[in-house]
Write a structure and sequence with these properties.
mainly alpha; 7 helices; 50% helix; two-stranded antiparallel sheet; three-stranded antiparallel sheet; 2 domains
């Protein structure tokens, strides 16, 4: 069985490992989430928010683990931020997963059935537009697209374009390959948020147990030290008069003289 100091060191090492692991996962969540949300102009991804919250909570946890005086307060703040990050990771995992599954259809992209339109050098994607012809089984229709856009006529509903369940155009991309990268980044962000969800729960539980473990590396003053310090104190006046009759004068009475006044002569 470990002594109290060894038990504290083991708990500290375990808490540090889980906190550092959560910090690494939150860094990946933030990086992949930002890469996904900046891939296109019309697809907004919010999967990087849990990375910010979990990363800050992990940073506070690492600091709190190494503190001595305010360790409990810092770990409580870390647990609060990690708890908010867990909730955000749960929400973003559902949102990004549902969005990738329902609103992005990768089959036309993988089959090379989507086209990329660019107006050339010198035109912004939102300043130049053109019309392209999309063919369906029974008819054809015109689709107005902007520059630097990947569009899929297979996903465009000529009768009612507003009822299209999947995105049929992606703005501000360099090629249709960027859309495939977006699809993969969304699923990667979803998986990382799920990992951050469970790892955040475990880390918060470990930090919550570690904050109440007493630190025995700094010994407190014992009762023996207190008794020794009491024995080394000089005897007081009351103890020096012990054993004398009640009418006897004290052994030593301090005499005070006013300024300029001479003491009486010594009489043997």
């Amino acid at each position: 069985m470990l002594d109290p100091a060894g038990h504290f060191a083991k708990r500290k090492k375990t808490s540090l490992w889980f906190t550092v692991a959560l910090l690494v996962v939150s860094t990946f969540i933030l990086t992949i989430g930002l890469a996904a949300t900046t891939r296109t102009e019309n697809v907004t991804v919010g999967g990087y928010y849990p990375g910010i919250i979990l990363g800050f909570g992990s940073f506070l946890g690492i600091i709190g683990i190494h503190l001595v005086e305010n360790r409990k307060q810092m770990l409580i703040a870390s647990i609060v931020f990690i708890s908010f990050g867990v909730v955000a990771a749960f929400c973003c995992a559902i949102v990004d997963g549902v969005f990738a599954a329902r609103h992005i259809e990768p089959r036309p992209l993988y089959n090379k059935r989507c086209q990329y339109y660019s107006s050339g050098v010198g035109f912004l994607y939102d300043a130049y537009q053109t019309e392209v012809t999309c063919y369906t089984l029974n008819s054809k229709c015109q689709l107005r697209v902007k520059s630097n856009t990947c569009y899929c006529c297979d996903l465009y509903n000529c009768e009612n374009s507003e009822h299209s369940t999947s995105y049929y155009e992606y703005l501000g991309v360099n090629s249709c390959q960027d859309v495939i990268h977006l699809y993969r980044l969304l699923w990667s962000s979803t998986v990382l948020n799920i990992i951050g969800l469970f790892l955040g729960i475990v880390t918060a539980a470990i930090l919550g147990a570690f904050k109440d473990v007493p630190n025995n590396n700094f010994p407190a003053s014992s009762s023996t030290d207190i008794s020794l310090s009491d024995d080394t104190q000089p005897p007081s006046q009351s103890s020096s008069n012990y054993g004398l009759p009640p009418n006897a004068p004290p052994l030593y009475t301090p005499t005070y003289f006013l300024s300029g006044e001479k003491p009486p002569p010594y009489v043997p």
